[in-house]
Structure formats: structure tokens, C-alpha cells
Amino acid sequence: MPETAHIAYDEDGIRLDRWFKRHYPALTHGRLEKLLRTGQIRLDGRRVKAADRVSAGQSLRLPPQVVHGNLEESPKEKAKPPQRMRGSLEEHILYMDKNVIVLNKPSGLATQGGSGLTTHVDGMLDSLAFEKNQRPRLVHRLDKDTSGVLLVARTVPAAAELSRAFAARDAQKIYWALVKGVPSVKRGTIKAALAKEGIRGNERMATVDRDEEGAKDAVTDFVVLDTAGDEFAWLAVKPLTGRTHQIRVHLASIGTPIVGDFKYGGTDVRGIGEIENRLHLHARSIDIARPDGGRLTIAAPMPDHMLTSWKLLGFNPERTGSPFGRAEKSNPKPQPPAPAKPRPKSKLSNKNKPKKKRR
Prior knowledge:
Elements: E1 3-6, H1 16-23, H2 29-37, E2 42-43, E3 59-62, H3 64-67, E4 93-96, E5 100-105, E6 137-138, E7 147-153, H4 156-167, E8 171-180, E9 187-191, E10 193-197, E11 204-208, E12 219-228, E13 232-239, H5 246-253, H6 262-265, E14 281-289, E15 295-299, H7 304-313, E16 347-349
Parallel strand pairs: 7-14
Antiparallel strand pairs: 1-3, 2-3, 4-5, 5-7, 6-7, 8-13, 8-14, 9-12, 9-16, 10-11, 12-13, 14-15
């Protein structure tokens, strides 16, 4: 019988064929086109094309031959099996049960393959199969140089439930970041639409007007946890939407780029002394609905380069708890501010008045 998959929040806006490439790499493009033409694959109950873009929360009807890997084709069309990489992720496991595995992804390891990438988490998931007779599945992603909590579903039903939780905003992901400079408020919300700019192979995200072509609403909450004079600040960051490079672009847009983020912060984000020139962004914790009921709440220790920086700056790396409170379901599309002038600066909102500028 057909099964149903749900589009994850961080897959919002990608092409349908790209979605299948990520989740079912053995399915050739030609075979996908045939399944779409015959209506065996449907999005929210309707026929679609490979180039159509999907939205978070949409339901995708999958025929049995896709779900269970029965993708046999004629010898001329038979696809090569997906690459399986040597190496194990076992040493990075923080938690495991019958439905889910939580990894502490190291900085520098990509989540999925791409141009020039030879090693990535997706290619090493076979090492996490253990007693199961099926390959684990990614349900969200982290940037290559971002470390921390990464969820992996051990079964197809678990992947569907976790993806549904992300799409329904029934999850709270908290990141820790070391930024250059100190925000003007202790607690705030950044609302700024994002879109890709630049040529293929050298693309980057930028803040844009909401009505600009390709713009997607993006909202990020932050709290200043500690500071080192006026030069560095330790932020807890909670993205309410899941856009590419959202945290990095938003923090840079308010004048506090992440240390080591040369893509969006330029040369001003260089470390000092023993503070390394590496991205200081860590997925610290997650609180999400379990596939079998209840909540899963787990935190990941920081990578060595960030731990060194915290100690040098006198910050407490053992801090626990969420400065944002418990995770709650939120509206799928938070309402951002009215359109601004061309190439706008991010809007920083806060219930409290800004503190006086430091001297």
C-alpha cells in the first residue's frame, strides 16, 4: 500500500526532484518522471511535476516500490547503488531508542553530499542501522561547519512523525553562538525576509523585501547570555523558521556577526589569540515530540574550539536550561513587519527599551 511522507520545515521551497534525490538516491530521474506522469506520486492529493516546489507540512504519497526500495529497472536504465562511505558515527551518539538516534555532529562534517564533498553524515548512516533491517534517515540538517544536535530517524514511520513535528513547529531548537560585538538589547526578535543572491556556485543568502522575487519570511529570537566587554557576546538563538543560513545572516544583519563566519561577517569576525578562526555556532539542544509520545529533550556538549573560547572569555559552558521557556507550537508563518526600503536592514524588536550604548 502507498505510504505518506511529510515535507520537513527545513525543506520548504526545494524542488520535488531534489527532495527525492535526498531521501531516495537510488530512484533515477527517469523513473521519478514516470511515477509522476502516471499519478503514483501525489502532493497533497494532486498530480505534480518534478520541477514543482514543495512547502513544509505538505503530504507526499509514495508508492510501495519507492518506500521499500523495489526500484528494479531494465539493465540499460538501472541506477548505480547509492554510495556508502566507510567510517562510523557511533562515537557521536548522544541518545538512541527504537525510533530515533541523536548525534552530536562535529564541526566540519557535512550533513549531506554536494559539490566537492566526499564525506558526509548521510553517506555514513549504514553504520547506525544496528539491529534494524532498514537504513536510518535524516529528518533535518545542519550546515557543514555548525556542530551539535542532529536527529536521525530509525524507521520510516518515525521519520514521518519527526518531520511532522518540525513542520507543525512542535519543536524547539536552541543554538549557542559567539558573536563579534554586543546587541543593543538583551532579548530580541529579528524579522527579515531572506533570498539567494549571486551566481551558481557562489551563492549566499541576503535580507530582502518581503515582496521581492524568491523572498521567504524568516524570524529569529535571541537572548544575550553573557558578554566580554563590548567585543564579544554569547547568544542563545532560537530560529522560528528554517531558512538556509538564517541565524548567520540575521545576526550579521544587526551588526553582530558570528565569530569565524567569513561568508557573512567579512574579516571583522577573525578570532583573537587562542580564539580560532572557525565558525562559533553550535546546535546546543532540541525539545521535540517523540514519535511514540512524550517529549525528547537533549543537549549536546560544545566542540573543542568553542569550549576553548568560552573558557578564555570566562563564560560557563555547563549552563543548562532554556532562556526561552518550554517549546510550544507556534503559527507556521509568523507575521513579519511591513515591507521596508530596498536592501533593508533586519528589524530588531524587543518588548523592553534598548539599553544605553556602552562607552
